[in-house]
């Protein structure tokens, strides 16, 4: 019995951070041992919000950093296929064939698209961003992905994929599996500013590649309870990002419970709470740093993984597009015209 396929990935906009880890990477590390796993480096999706030449020029470096981060987090390179989306033009072909299976009003109901436009400073919705879920459907269906791990922000996108797959199969025959969503059980991680989701562009993130001193400096500057002016003032734990990070990354549950109790009672200062968070985060990141060092010492490894994975994936996608065109009858239309043209060339020309 064949192993089910998983499709997951990220846009190559820079190094990954703790928000990526809790929102998706920890799930991928667990799942990639169970499924045949494809990791997309989604640079075409990046163009929907970052399409300046200087952004595009950073893709190759960001792609290497992204793959390095994922491997350092615990993904086994022998059990993962990494590929660069823009190096597989057939994905664009499939996107074109699928885009008529969904309506504009349906896409406008995807809640995260307006948020993405707003966060990238777009006053109006670009056509490509509105079609983001369709291209994402092409990404998933081009490798016949059967499972997709998602955070809450992407669940609505993948639901569009499921609808497109069902619609295609109904119209043209069973070609695509209808992918299942595997939701993350961890909510999105608030940034160190306590105001927004963690994001590289907002400067409120802790990177998986940060060194211990950078982590310490960032944590000591974190937002806490704004109403707490002294250590003996009872503080609020709920919504406090320092405690959200303790919950996510500090395995010493007794220590976390003690800190929360004393914080609410006004018997511990922010400095002590943050110092203990620094220790917990660096303990969490140390194994990732060690794996990163080994990966970076193996020169050319990441580039080789991307090239081999892209070539393998392109072979898969070419076959899928052939099946799609055949199911839709598009190959037959051209063959009919071609046969007529060949017959006409065999006929003798009329004498004058």
Automatic annotation (TrEMBL):
- Where do the record's region annotations for Disordered lie? 189-208
Q: Which reaction does it catalyse?
A: tRNA(Trp) + L-tryptophan + ATP = L-tryptophyl-tRNA(Trp) + AMP + diphosphate + H(+)
One GO MF term, please? tryptophan-tRNA ligase activity
UniProt cross-references to PROSITE patterns, sorted A to Z:
AA_TRNA_LIGASE_I
Cellular component, GO annotation: cytosol
Q: What is its EC number?
A: 6.1.1.2
Which Gene3D superfamilies does the entry link to?
HUPs (3.40.50.620), Tyrosyl-Transfer RNA Synthetase (1.10.240.10)
Which BP terms in the Gene Ontology apply to this protein?
Answer: tryptophanyl-tRNA aminoacylation
Q: Which residues form a coiled coil?
A: none
Among PANTHER family, the record links this protein to: TRYPTOPHAN--TRNA LIGASE, MITOCHONDRIAL
Provide the family line.
Belongs to the class-I aminoacyl-tRNA synthetase family.
The protein here is known as Tryptophan--tRNA ligase
Organism of origin = Micromonospora krabiensis
